C-alpha cells in the first residue's frame, strides 16, 4: 500500500509541475516505463531516484510520506542510553 500512495503523490506532483511522464523520466534518467511503475506503485522508488525526484519536482522527501507523519511517531518517548 505504501508504494501505491507514494506513487500517487508522485503522479500528482508531476502533473502539478506540468511534466508528462516522458519529460520527467528523461530528467531523472529513467525510462518512461520505470516511472509509470513508480506511479502505479508496482515498483519501489530507490533512494537515489527518490532524491532525484525531489530535486526535479522541488519537494522535500517528507512530501511523499505526509500521509503517515502522525502515525510514525513513537507511542512512548525514545530514551537514549549514554555510552559509559
In short:
The chain has 84 residues and is mainly α. The chain has helices at 2-16, 21-28, 32-40, 47-57, 62-65.
Rg, alpha carbons: 16 Å
> How far apart are the termini?
42 Å
Q: What is the tally of beta strands?
A: 0
Mean pLDDT: 87
Describe the global form.
Answer: globular
Helix/strand-derived category reads: mainly alpha
Described by strand count, sense and barrel closure, the largest sheet is: none
Strand content: under 5%
Could you explain how this protein is built, in words?
This protein is an all-alpha fold and 84 residues long. It has helices spanning 2-16, 21-28, 32-40, 47-57, 62-65. The radius of gyration is 16 Å and the shape is globular. The relative contact order is 0.17.
How do the helices and strands line up, and which of them pair or pack?
Layout: H1 2-16, H2 21-28, H3 32-40, H4 47-57, H5 62-65
Helix pairs in contact: 1-3, 2-3
Question: Which keywords apply here?
Answer:
84 residues, mainly alpha, 5 helices, 56% helix
